[in-house]
Amino acid sequence: MHGNLNQDIEMEKVYCANCIHCVVVRHFEAEQDKYILRVKCNKKKWSKRSGEEKLYKYFTVARRMQSDCEFYQEMGDILPYIKNLKKELPIKDEIYLVKSPV
Q: 94 by DSSP, 3-state: which?
């Protein structure tokens, strides 16, 4: 007998944040000494209609999901990781400064 339909649908979706191909990158704005963090999929699963690669805000990574991603490689136990990630991520973009060489 199958489980609850909602559970079956949920099992097909994967959290991108728990995938080895989901990476954090620096995104420089107009000022080259400042950057913000973005996440991207190294397998290019996130793209705009134009075909250009899509970058997402770092603090939203815990919400990114894909259905049946053929490239998904789990990095660990999903439940404690995603729960902690949602709790620990910033709630908005944070601006970082590039350190000057001494």
A: coil
Number of domains in the chain: 1
| Identity at 76, one-letter amino acid code | G
Q: How many CA atoms lie within 13 A of 98 on its CB side?
A: 11
- Give this prediction's pTM: 0.76
pLDDT in tens, 1-14: 444 434 444 456 89
- Cβ neighbors of 29 (< 8 A, separation 6 or more) are 35, 36
Cα–Cα dist 100/28, whole Å? 15
User: Is residue 99 situated within a structural domain?
Assistant: no
How far apart CA 63 and CA 46 sit, in angstroms, is 13
Q: Give the domain extent around 33.
A: 15-89
pLDDT below 70 — which residues of the chain? Answer: 1-12, 102
